[in-house]
Amino acid sequence: MAQRILVTGGAGYIGSHTCVALRQAGYEPVIYDNFSNASRQVLKRLAAICGSAPEVIEGDVRDRAAIETALRSHDIRAVIHFAALKSASESIEMPLAYYDNNVHGTVQLLSAMRACNVASLVFSSSAAVYGDAERMPVREDSQRAAQSPYGRTKIICEDLLSDISRAEPGWSIARLRYFNPFGAHESGLIGEDTRGVPPNLGPYLTQVAAGQRVQLSVFGGDYDTRDGTGVRDFIHVVDLAEGHIAALRKLEGDAGLLTVNLGTGTGYTVLEMIAAFAKASGRPVPYVIAPRRKGDIAECYADVSRAREMLDWRARRGLAEMCADAWRWQIRNPEGYASDPHREKAML
Ligand code: NAD
Ligand code: UD1
């Protein structure tokens, strides 16, 4: 029987793509999500891609008893822990909610896992832990210096995981530091379902190309980069999802703690992204150069040698594919999962 993997936050952007990758790799995902930032529509879409929808448990990661029930009743072998709040800017306004969801949620999850003897965990960390690193590309042993409460919650969870694995050697834990996910599944059925004004470049760019927003503000044109705009390591969300399968496989063979960057190793500027997206969509992307955004850094891209060596994984999809897939998701779902149900019926 396929090994069952509990996927907290499995209805979200990266989680839903990881559920597809898990099925393709012969695992059985069980989604555990409170739907605070996800739509139940994603389940129908997953069914259309995978043949059947994964089982879903509606619950909160801060509810230890409910997680224990989920782990026991489903004979769970490992957990992939995506469930968290993820906006750096929002975390400055509401730090308590971030510490509660991200840190307290992880403590409750780990306590439940320990009580149920489930000792294999893949944890979603972020390039946000590095802050304004001195040298590029950033290596896993670069100093961590998060610039936001959000980034600090990820550092605290990372430290909690290393303390636990030191104290209790039976744990197998992967701390995966994601760079900037973009794109969508090639089917156009699942993607990033942004609510309100998108804080990140990818969805904003997509909505400008679609004519839903007038223009993109490029935050800062005077950075010390090749064209003056910020540089980031954009990674296709499906590559990122596949990185989790590689990590799970690695954990099967090895107890201990693993920390790995998941990026492409290549940085692109905001202007290069605009040009790539305009080409992929065939639409103009009007933009203005605006003042720098508070807390932003000039550039951030990953050293990916450890991912290659330890996980035998590398990102395979490039910028053009990321943009084309993001565009397909956008035109088929102009309102995300809340798009016209007739249109949805026609797609399925
Ligand atoms: P997302 O918001 O799309 O998914 C998170 C999911 O977790 C949502 O389905 C939400 O409903 C659920 N959730 C939130 N709090 C919960 C709780 N207390 N209990 C149960 N479910 C809860 O976000 P995403 O982009 O898929 O990110 C997934 C993970 O990756 C997060 O931990 C995030 O911090 C991390 N990450 C994301 C990015 C990015 O740019 N998207 C970059 C680096 C790291
Ligand atoms: C942001 C978060 C980071 C988080 C990451 C992934 C901040 C300061 N950092 O990082 O904690 O891990 O998202 O969720 O919020 N840009 C524009 N115009 C826009 C939006 C963005 O020019 O409308 C630029 C930014 O200035 C930056 C680049 O695009 O240079 C990427 O921005 P974004 O997508 O927000 O990601 P990060 O800043 O890397």
TrEMBL record:
Q: Which CDD domains match?
A: UDP_G4E_1_SDR_e
Domain of life here?
Bacteria
Quaternary structure and partners = Homodimer.
Spell out the reaction equation it catalyses. Answer: UDP-alpha-D-glucose = UDP-alpha-D-galactose
Record-given protein name: UDP-glucose 4-epimerase
Please state the span of the N-terminal signal peptide per the UniProt entry. Answer: none
Pfam families reported in the protein's UniProt record: Epimerase
Could you tell me the EC number(s) of this protein?
A: 5.1.3.2
Gene (UniProt):
galE
Single Gene Ontology MF annotation: UDP-glucose 4-epimerase activity
Q: Which family does it belong to?
A: Belongs to the NAD(P)-dependent epimerase/dehydratase family.
The alphabetical list of record keywords is:
Carbohydrate metabolism, Isomerase, NAD
Transferase listed as a keyword: no
Q: Which InterPro entries match?
A: Epimerase_deHydtase, UDP_G4E
